[in-house]
Amino acid sequence: MLKKQYPFYLASKPVYANEDLEVRNKFNDELIATVALASASDIDQAIAAADKAQAAMKALPSYKRQAILNHCVARFKERFEELAQALCQEAGKPIKDSRGEVTRLIDTFQIAAEEATRIYGEVMPLDISARAEGYQGMWKRVPIGPCSFISPFNFPLNLAAHKIAPAIAAGCTFILKPASLTPISALIVAEILAETDLPEGAFSILPCRRDGADLFTTDDRLKLLSFTGSPDVGWDLKKKAGKKPVVLELGGNAACIVDEGTDLDDAVTRIIFGAYYQSGQSCISVQRIMVHESLFEEAKTKLTAAVKGLVMGDPADENTFIGPMISVKEAERLHGWVEAAQAAGATVLAGGNRNGAMLEATLLTDVTDEMDVYNQEAFGPVAIISKFSDFDAALEEVNNSDFGLQAGIFTKDIYKAHKAWDVLEVGGVVIGDVPSWRVDHMPYGGVKDSGLGREGIRYAIEDMTEMKLMVLRTPK
To answer: Catalytic: which of 249, 360, 377, 455?
Structure first.
């Protein structure tokens, strides 16, 4: 059962400062709850607390950090349905997808608990020449310090978890700004963190207005900024971040190649999932479907029928596959792109209609590369299908994008698979499946406008720690 009012968490403690942020059900616009909004002064206090608590956090033994993460895993399991219902209501995420995200939240914290006790270093020989005889080196990884995290609306639990969990494992204090449209999930996590033995002040979770959140980026007491969101915002934050390292996950325009000889029934099933799960609001949602000419007509027919069969409606309904987009504004934007493409010669094979925040699952063909639905990130339930005759040319077309997060390749040719891995300008190539596939311990991130750095607990820990060297001289 969701509460009617949620505090923010400042220096590990709940603060009911106000009821300024209204959180609404994205399907019916009913008021779900009110949430306290943090001020610039609150953020400053949170940073000071994180800075003060860093010494105690660094000194926390790895088995205690592991125990804290394991406590969270146990409590997430106990509050599983509450977390799923929060996602369903505040994000408009279909309930089956919401439960899937809670499962991933649990996985992410479990992985972090495992990694907390295996942050290794290395012994290295230094006697590479006569002058270094008698010297040896050792390095270890130490926490980078207080971290700043900004998480998005589309995976309010798991993308926050990909910042919080490795920070705890690494021994870093942190402050987190959840998306104002979907703050409840992160605040439930904060409730659970407050039950643990984290040092006082080690964390703050602070919903706040974007225009009051500059300290998350600019304050030099923060030693790392990790942001997930839009490219325009992310690159602008990087400019303002000063000397601190920055990790950015900024979205994509994911392509999926269906090569000759592919099992179409299998590919269609996976592409439908990849393009339209949680209404396409995923950075690795399938947007461009490229099918070999020998399979194109059959693929088009099967995909069109499958898209038309998707159930759209209340995300709380167990049968719903397509729920609302995050807002009417976003639905209007993407619907406008569809209409503009159609006016310029594209053909709508399925969907194309909008009612408020509800945009039908839409499949287009005859799309050209100057159209927004081709060259921008749709971030909604819209995909385009085209055909190719030459595999190498198809790889070039995948690269014809400012983004480079992940790509999917359906092929039975191992040489083509390796060529795709070599040639594609993306952070990850998924063979035999859609680019939308992810498991939470793999290195995940992009190139070009898709961002900097990698998520996945072990790889996030690398960003949240620094190498520290010791040189030992043995006198003769």
So the answer is: 249
